[in-house]
């Protein structure tokens, strides 16, 4: 690996003295090239972190936009009579970008000095082995899921709901782009669960590379966007891993307002009883379909829409009660 220029040479000398570049993989050499090209580790880490988030977030959302535009996929749509319009998706995009640039972008520039202060590796190579990263990433999933379970319930109470979380519940039938459609304060609160796990892990173990954090963030973004997609396919992950949450679990939360507060896993809702209405609803749907085995698909869909409408009506009341505890009542906005 060769670099030209005095500045690049200085960076190589400062950051990568004694590194055997011939022993590095292509990805590791590209990593070095990025930090050398930018010339400042703080800027390089901040810019890479922000670009990664934006590219993955919108890159993963685009397939769901395409799927929403194709009628064939409605057979797997959890609320098939509620398809987001282009105008709704554009309004959602603007709010998401506002939160990204007002909360995430300023905060992301503090990440490198904070991470290094806690002992995290950033520009360093070589990368850790997969067997090192895998348990770390599982811990991040576990930590974030429990943090989100607690914080999400708090956001459903009084003032926090009325002035913050209500924005995220604008759509009773969520769609991929709406994963981070939220008040900037909510982005900060729930985003804390995503990054606090890695920071705490690094503080106590002094053994964490930022690449592991990036892989975790990519997986977390995929999880959040897919959970808001509104689709449940036969190959959806929860049909393979029973304790995985997924869209089928989280869609009910938006439809009914209550229950299912976790993100990745179902176990906290089951342990603390915050999925009782969800399980009752699924039992009613299964019973209704079982009693109508000989009915046409149109008749089966009609009874499921009826049950959905009942649950959503209860959700509107529950939302109004939650908001009333914050001073006034409110009513849910529905995607038509």
TrEMBL record:
GO cellular component annotations, sorted alphabetically? Answer: membrane
What molecular functions are annotated in GO for this chain? iron ion binding; oxidoreductase activity
Q: Could you tell me the keywords of this UniProt record? A: Coiled coil, Membrane, Transmembrane, Transmembrane helix
Q: Does the keyword Transmembrane helix apply?
A: yes
Note the coiled coil stretches, chain numbering.
278-305
One of the GO biological process terms: lipid biosynthetic process
Q: Where in the cell is it found?
A: Membrane
Q: Which PANTHER family match?
A: STEROL DESATURASE
What name appears for this protein in its UniProt entry?
A: Fatty acid hydroxylase domain-containing protein
């Amino acid at each position: 690996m060769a670099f030209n220029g005095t500045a690049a040479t200085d960076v190589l000398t400062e950051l990568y003295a004694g590194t055997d570049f011939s022993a590095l993989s292509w990805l590791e050499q590209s990593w070095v090239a990025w930090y050398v090209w930018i010339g400042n580790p703080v800027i390089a880490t901040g810019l890479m972190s922000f670009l990664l988030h934006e590219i993955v977030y919108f890159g993963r959302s685009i397939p769901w936009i395409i799927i929403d535009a194709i009628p064939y996929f409605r057979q797997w749509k959890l609320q098939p009579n509620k398809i987001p319009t282009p105008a709704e998706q554009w309004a959602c995009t603007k709010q998401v970008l506002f939160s990204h640039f007002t909360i995430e972008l300023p905060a992301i520039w503090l990440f490198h000095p904070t991470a290094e202060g806690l002992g995290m590796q950033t520009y360093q190579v070589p990368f850790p082995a997969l067997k090192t990263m895998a348990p770390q990433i599982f811990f991040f999933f576990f930590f974030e899921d429990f943090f989100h379970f607690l914080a999400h319930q708090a956001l459903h109470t009084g003032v926090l709901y009325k002035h913050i979380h209500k924005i995220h519940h604008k759509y009773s039938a969520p769609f991929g782009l709406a994963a981070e459609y939220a008040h900037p304060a909510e982005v900060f609160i729930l985003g804390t669960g995503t990054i606090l796990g890695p920071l705490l892990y690094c503080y106590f173990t002094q053994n964490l590379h930022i690449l592991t954090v990036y892989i975790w963030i990519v997986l977390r973004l995929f999880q959040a966007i897919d959970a808001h997609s509104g689709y449940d396919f036969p190959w959806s992950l929860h049909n393979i891993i029973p304790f995985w949450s997924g869209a089928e679990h989280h869609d009910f939360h938006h439809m009914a307002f209550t229950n299912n507060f976790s993100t990745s896993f179902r176990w906290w809702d089951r342990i603390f009883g915050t999925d009782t209405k969800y399980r009752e609803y699924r039992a009613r749907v299964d019973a209704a379909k079982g009693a109508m085995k000989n009915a046409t698909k149109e008749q089966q869909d009609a009874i499921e829409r009826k049950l959905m409408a009942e649950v959503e009506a209860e959700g509107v009341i529950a939302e109004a009660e939650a908001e009333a505890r914050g001073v006034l009542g409110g009513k849910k906005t529905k995607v038509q």
